[in-house]
Specification:
The protein is α/β, with parallel strands linked by helices and 407 residues long. The protein has 10 helices and 12 strands.
Length: 407
């Protein structure tokens, strides 16, 4: 007598743990046998509360729920028990990714609709076809396996990113202390505290001091980008008049404009409103945009700093007539450590952090930043800010407490 070889167990279902929740023993045994042929292990429950308890304790790979079961203390009728169990499982982060198949004798469109609304992944009618059941189980377990693998990969990626960011912050902090001491010493040398210095060495010292200040600014940008991304850099908001803000920015850059032969002016609309923001951060954003325009142009540029009312609050702009930015790079430039050199622009050393800082600083206020540019036609950076920061903030410098939220 020839004995047929057992069918191979599909790898997607081999060893999978399946919870079967049904108050009819015969139904449970039938599903146990059919799932056993697929290589699945089975645990079972006979009512709503025990189904939830088994899910919490056993962490199954898949659940098969009857619709009508004793509800216990779930506060629903028996014909709603399966739906309530499904809703609770999907609300719980620990069980939300477990696939759920409803198996019911209720052949009604309303029942199927409730199963979908409760979060069910599939629905089979009793008596079900075992081949159809096997196909649905295999499909859902494959999907769950792929989802779990993706989640694990994402967790590893986040852990690696955190480790890199932690190392970066440690290095940056270690760099900042000796650099500050170097700057203090350079200032003392330049001012003659260690003796008189001739003009030529004095100019060289001033140049070195300026480069060291730039490096310190980059380090501070890096620290602040990390703090804003972690929401650990609190805002200190105050009322800001746009005309005064832009005038201050031009005044701060007056010497540099003369050195670079840059022409700059402001254009403030009559209806540009006073807004509440962290003035230090906003001024640093404007300074980074001005620095970016000057540094990346091969010839002296003309800058226009503007302000106007917008439906979302206020829009500040920094426009230049420089070489422009190719369209395919206009989103990339706001990412950390990304650098795009425009055609014919001078070769410059850059960390790729300036525009990344601008983005996180603006987003910390609940605003957004973007650029409009075309090669050879200059660039215009737009900062859209709400009239009030749409994030939790510290008290205003004036001692008042501004309303936070959507204007």
């Amino acid at each position: 007598m020839t004995v047929a070889a057992p069918l191979p167990v599909p790898p997607a279902t081999a060893g999978a743990l399946v919870l079967v929740a049904d108050d009819v023993e015969a139904n449970v045994e039938l599903l146990r046998d059919q799932l056993g042929l697929l290589g699945c292990r089975v645990v079972h429950a006979t009512d709503g509360p025990s189904a939830l308890a088994q899910c919490a304790a056993a962490d199954p790979d898949l659940c098969i729920l009857d619709v009508s079961m004793p509800p216990g203390d779930l506060g629903v009728e028996a014909r709603e028990t399966g739906f309530e169990v499904c809703r609770r499982l999907k609300r719980d982060p620990r069980t939300a990714r477990i696939p759920i198949i409803f198996v019911s004798a209720l052949n009604d469109a309303g029942v199927r609709l409730k199963a979908i609304e409760a979060g069910g992944d599939d629905f089979l009618l009793k008596p079900h076809n075992r081949h159809v059941l096997g196909a649905r189980v295999r499909s859902l377990l494959k999907l769950k396996g792929a989802t779990d693998a993706l989640e694990e990969s994402l967790m590893r990626l986040r852990a690696a990113q955190k480790a890199r960011d932690d190392l970066m912050r440690m290095i940056v902090h270690d760099l900042k202390t000796p650099l500050t001491s170097m700057l203090a010493t350079l200032e003392m040398l330049r001012e003659g505290d260690f003796g008189a210095i001739a003009d030529r060495p004095a100019r060289a010292l001033s140049d070195v001091e300026g480069k060291a200040e730039d490096l310190l600014g980059l380090i501070q940008d890096l620290l602040d980008v990390s703090k804003v991304e972690e929401q650990s850099l609190p805002l200190t908001p105050e009322p800001i008049a746009p005309a005064a803000l832009l005038a201050e920015t031009l005044f701060d850059w007056e010497l540099r404009f003369r050195q670079e032969q840059t022409t700059a002016r402001t254009e403030v609309a009559d209806d540009a409103p006073v807004f509440v923001a962290d003035k230090t951060l906003v001024k640093r954003v404007l300074a980074n945009l001005v620095q970016n325009a000057i540094t990346h142009s091969p010839v002296p540029v003309t800058l226009v700093l503007g302000a106007r009312r917008d439906a979302g609050g206020i829009v500040l702009t920094v426009a230049d007539d420089g070489p422009g930015i190719p369209e395919e790079y206009q989103g990339l430039i706001f990412q950390k450590f990304e650098q795009v050199r425009a055609p014919n622009a001078p070769r410059v050393r850059s960390s790729g952090l300036g525009l990344a800082f601008c983005r996180v600083a603006v987003e910390a206020h609940g605003g957004r930043i973007w650029v409009r540019s075309a090669e050879g036609q200059g660039s215009t950076f737009h900062l859209q800010l709400p009239l009030q920061p749409q994030v939790p903030v510290r008290a205003m410098r004036t001692g008042e407490h501004p309303a936070v939220g959507t204007p």
